[in-house]
């Protein structure tokens, strides 16, 4: 009987821990969806609020590690580009207060000057949980070939 109680208590603990991870996983997916919605609606405030103060990234063009030029981002967004970022094959791995988000993205950007960009990317976002909120601290993107893996 004692072994049965220990077994049931262990199952309950596993269920609670798993549920916490499931909630965290969904919270990270929601945080990424909010960031993408910010880009897609050209909403500077949403974009900036989704990223940590010390956010950095490796861009798809192979640049060295960068930090955003927020004035330049705002100026570009103010020109009114049409942005469409559609993620697929999303995954989230939680490790304590750190989460690794991975996905593929189809990206379409149409600038008012007529220049357009169409890309398929593989991306990784590193999230950290601060005060109960998942916030992105690092992003790494790379272009894919072939461009549209299924």
Report on the structure:
It is a single chain. With 150 residues, the protein is α+β, with helices and mostly antiparallel strands. The chain has a single domain (2-143), classed as Nuclear Transport Factor 2, Chain: A, CATH 3.10.450.50. Helices cover 36% and strands 41% of the residues. The chain has helices at 2-40, 44-49, 70-78, and strands at residues 51-58, 82-95, 98-110, 116-130, 133-143. A five-stranded mixed sheet has the order 1-5-4-3-2.
Q: What is the total domain count?
A: 1
Distinct helical segment count:
3
In terms of per-residue confidence, which ranges show pLDDT below 50 for 5 or more consecutive residues? 4-20
Helix content: 25-40%
Radius of gyration based on Cα positions:
19 Å
What's the β-strand tally?
5
Mean pLDDT: 87
Report the end-to-end length measured between terminal Cα atoms. 51 Å
String of helices and strands: HHEHEEEE
Major sheet, described briefly? 5 strands, mixed
Task: Tell me the fraction of residues in β-strands, as a range.
Answer: 35-45%
* 3D shape: globular
Strand order of the largest sheet: 1-5-4-3-2
Tell me the structural class. Answer: alpha+beta
Q: According to CATH, what is the topology?
A: Nuclear Transport Factor 2, Chain: A
In CATH, the architecture is Roll
Highest CATH level, the class? Alpha Beta
In short:
Helices cover 36% and strands 41% of the residues.
Give the tags.
single chain; 150 residues; alpha+beta; Nuclear Transport Factor 2, Chain: A; 5-stranded mixed β-sheet; 41% strand
Topology (elements, then pairings):
Elements: H1 2-40, H2 44-49, E1 51-58, H3 70-78, E2 82-95, E3 98-110, E4 116-130, E5 133-143
Parallel strand pairs: 1-5
Antiparallel strand pairs: 2-3, 3-4, 4-5
